[in-house]
Amino acid sequence: MLMENLNTKMLIVCKGCNQKKEHHAKGMCLNCYRKYSWKRKKIICKNCKRERFHKAFGLCSTCHIKLHHYDKTKNYNYRKYHNVSIELYKEKTKECVLCGFNKIVDLHHLDKNLKNNNPSNLIGLCPNHYKTLHDCRFSEEIANILKEKGINAKISKL
Question: Are residues 144 and 89 both part of a single domain?
């Protein structure tokens, strides 16, 4: 094994690739060490209870992203696609105004102008009512139900 000290960097002939590179561990460069010697640690994930490769905080990669980064991504997307604050979005999408469904609720603009983010122009609709309101075959029926509840919505035309 050839070693040289240039500017405090240890250069060696790597056992894996036989190239002169900076030493990392076990006589190999970083890439070869990761490829041949380093083994990822498996754990039982604290969240999903499955045996998976460790990411951080005792979690697998999927659970780590969901628990630590998912909210940041959602907040960014609310701002980017709806141009509304997270508080307003959560308030309007608590439940469908027609049926009270609260698992998945979409944000709907009553005047169909996506740039008009006035709180009085926004309502929450479940996926079924959202889709039927945007379908010209059923939009009049859904709009009439909304009118009975005191909400005026534009109707999709052919």
Answer: yes
Query: Which residue from 86, 90, 84, 55 is spatially nearest to 72, judged by alpha carbons?
Result: 86
List CB contacts of 31: < 8 A, sequence separation 6 or more: 16, 17
Q: What is the pLDDT of residues 85-98, one digit of tens each?
A: 888 888 999 999 99
Tell me, what DSSP letter sits at residue 95? S
Query: Residue 139 belongs to what domain range?
Result: 85-148
List the beta bridge partners of residue 25: 28
DSSP 101: -
Residue 121 has pLDDT above 70, yes or no: yes
In a domain, 156, yes or no: no
Pair of tokens at residue 2: 């050839």
Is the predicted pLDDT of residue 22 greater than 50, yes or no?
yes
Domain for residue 144, yes or no? yes
- Specify if 13 maps to a domain: yes
β-pairing, 59-60 vs 51-56, is antiparallel
Provide the total of helices (H) and of strands (E) in the chain, helices listed first: 6, 8
Position 4 scores a pLDDT of: 47
Q: What is the pTM of this model?
A: 0.56
Q: Does some domain include residue 8?
A: yes
- Domains contained in the chain, number: 2
